[in-house]
Amino acid sequence: xxRNFAKPTPLARLIMDDCQGxxxxxxxxxxxxxxxxxxxxxxxxxxxxxxxxxxxxxxRNSIHxxxxxxxxxxxxAGQDNWGIKxxxxxxDVNNNHVKNNKYGVSCINSSSVSLKGNIAAQIESGTxxxxxxxxxxxxxxxxxxxxxxxxxxxxxxxxxxxxPLVYYNTNACCYNIRCNCFPANPVFxxxxxxxxxxxxxxxxxxxxxxxxxxxxxxxxxxxxxxxxETSEIQFKNVxxxxxxxxxxxxxxxxxxxxxxxxxxxxxxxxxxxxSTPNLYLDSTVSRLTxxxxxxxxxxxxxxxxxINWFENAIINPYSENDSIYSIIDLEDTYMLMIADSxxxxxxxxxxxxxxxxxxxxxxxxxxxxxxxxxxxxxxxxQNNENPKPQDLKSxxxxxxxxxxxxxxxxELSYMINENDVVTILVTDISGKQxxxxxxTHQEPGKHSLKVDLTGKPDxxxxxxxxxxxxxxxxxxxxxxxx
Length: 482
Fold this sequence. Notes:
Number of helices: 8
Radius of gyration: 23 Å
Strand content: 25-35%
Number of strands: 28
Structural class: alpha/beta
Shape: globular
Distance between the termini: 40 Å
């Protein structure tokens, strides 16, 4: 197990080649700037395991590859396992075999990922296989959709399993997943948001090229050849010429890595991000751009500015997922400050308002990150059916708690339009139930109740609204100093 959790260094490297292991053998890395994980055999028989788990990796080097590696989860694929989990990581995932997990490959929080198989394969095992993972073969979150997704075997042969093969938590259109070996009637989520075609070995020809891909591939080729000035111009041209495309989004991410490689000017890059209209075409791309600008703050070691940005994102969340990313990234920023022996921040001992999110140790930081990432995978409906009218939010409304953050007590309010049994559940970040309130018949109208968490530790709490014992909504509250 390779680790570089608490003290990321400018030259962190990992090469793993021809390794085999069982049970507790996994690869788990934080802030590893370059990695080559090649020709390994990874298997495990315990729930809660991840074969390859990378966070903040590959973002300062052109070597960031996972290849020719087999990752086999337990025979009971319903257990809570991940094959490959990538958080804010740049990775080329090529010709691997990822099987029998709950999730095959997961891409999270602005990761930059390529899923590439072997076009010359004569049999299915001769190319990348992401198969028989019980929930999703590929699970994607928020600006992390693979920019190259071709020549893979993407199937689920488990009996009576109709979960989407590919699941992305957005309704944007359209994502290029042409030239993969899917079953005859593949299920994707959201439905209708993918440009797909079927290629299976030994088929030789398939057209996978999407709009902007050739220009983006040329920029990547320049980048990989260390022609950095040329690649910078090419990436910016992609942003200019293909606004809103996945290649424009990826080019924005690549510019950050490019600037790191040349020891460049992050203040100028931040200014470019902030002044380029094509990076603000919709709320999703705008949020990515804002996050990239804050990563420029971190690269400049303006930790106080970065912390303030994360705290504002937590207190005034753009979305629940976004607030989870902000907590993870805030804790990581504190760990970077601790590890920075040449700290040049204007406030080397700076603490923001949400001091409860400063980890007391690297062990606490690791545990918190794992718990928070698991929250992203809370199971929701994975079908593509349109909601029925009676299921729509018009029958209820659950308001954000006030105040938030709160020191000990906060008020919850909700509106119902029918006579229903209403229950409020209060849980902590680990999912442990702390309180069950109400559970009474209530008349239509607006209702309020106070929740007292005196004596409970500062941190994140979840308030769930149940109507007739069915959870219909939940919100996140933060206990801590206002």
